[in-house]
Design brief:
Layout lengths: L5 H27 L1 H12 L3 H24 L7 H15 L6 H13 L4 H29 L15 H21 L1 H22 L2 H28 L6 H15 L10 H12 L4 H32 L4
Length: 318
């Protein structure tokens, strides 16, 4: 019997390691945050279960919304079941790597395996992120207009913090512009990517079904996330109106987008608690709501999500 080439054996071993890596990372993260897990599950015992079921349902629908948005970002028809499974797995990956990188890497690999060139796959990923950001900001702006006094915005940003923050943002933007001006290869690569991205966006918007999936999914995704928080707030009797809870969620997640922690773990909890308190919730109840919400949306799905990620790697879907 002929032996397998060494390169094939090494490739199989690397793939086996990649299958087990997500579960290993989940274990490490869970051990690091074991106190949060214990307290969060404790809060769930005191909650009204019908509202918790509603929160779990809204969480499941976020993966469907993400799948619609991903499909809307490309012209080609993607395999629906594998696309949905990839979004579930990408959610777990997103909690193991700095915000956005995990899901981006999983979806980029999925699109390339489906036959899209790397340039177009990257353009589709950028279009997804742009649409989701615009939709989130649109929902936040709409709620701020409807409820201008819902948040005590002064409590969200410490006194004197705005100036240094603007200086940091200006320095980063200035460095980026300087790099574009001085580094010709970087400028050429970015211009080439932008041409591909604009071409992809134009092609998608010539098809009404794709445009509807892109923007409908982009709006549904943050709305469902906010609905999950509202449901948990109702389950624990948080004395904040639902619309203001949704506003607090959107404001917190927009702020946390600037903090590159894995899945927002730590930063999301802090920002949500501050936002709910700014909306008028007691600190103790707001903390309980956030811990319970993160258990439902992050910690319960993360193990099956990691197992799904490993299975998709093994089956060569990604």
């Amino acid at each position: 019997m002929a032996r397998k080439p060494f390169s094939d054996v090494r490739h199989v071993r690397v793939r086996q390691i990649l299958c087990l890596l997500p579960l290993l990372l989940v274990t490490v993260v869970a051990v690091q945050h074991r106190s949060v897990l214990v307290e969060g599950f404790g809060q769930l015992r005191a909650a009204e279960w019908p509202w918790l079921v509603a929160a779990a349902g809204a969480t499941c629908l976020t993966w469907v919304a993400a799948a619609f948005t991903r499909q809307g970002a490309v012209v080609e028809r993607l395999p629906a079941r594998r696309l949905l499974a990839t979004q579930f797995a990408a959610g777990a990956a997103n909690h193991l790597l700095p915000t956005g990188l995990g899901a981006g890497a999983v979806n980029l690999r999925f699109l390339t395996v489906c036959g899209l060139p790397l340039a177009r796959s990257s353009a589709a990923l950028a279009l997804y992120l742009l649409a989701e950001s615009i939709a989130r900001l649109t929902l936040l702006t709409g709620l701020l207009i409807a409820f201008p006094d819902a948040l005590r915005l002064g409590t969200l940003l410490p006194a004197g913090a705005l100036g240094p923050l603007l200086v940091i943002i200006g320095a980063v933007l200035g460095a980026a512009v300087l790099a574009l001006v001085l580094v010709r290869r970087l400028r050429t690569a970015i211009l080439s990517f932008l041409r591909t991205a604009f071409s992809e966006a134009r092609s998608v918007h010539t098809r009404p079904a794709r445009a509807l999936a892109l923007w409908g999914g982009s709006l549904a995704f943050p709305a469902l996330q906010a609905a999950g928080l509202v449901a948990v707030g109702q389950a624990l009797n948080l004395p904040v109106p639902p619309a203001q809870m949704a506003l607090a969620y959107l404001a917190a997640t927009v702020a946390v987008a600037l903090v590159p922690t894995p899945g927002g773990i730590g930063s999301v909890e802090a920002a949500l608690i501050v936002a709910l308190v700014a909306a008028g919730g007691p600190v103790a109840v707001a903390t309980a709501v956030v811990l319970a919400y993160r258990i439902i949306t992050v910690w319960i799905p993360i193990i099956p999500g990691a197992l799904t990620l490993g299975a998709l790697v093994r089956l060569r879907v990604i």
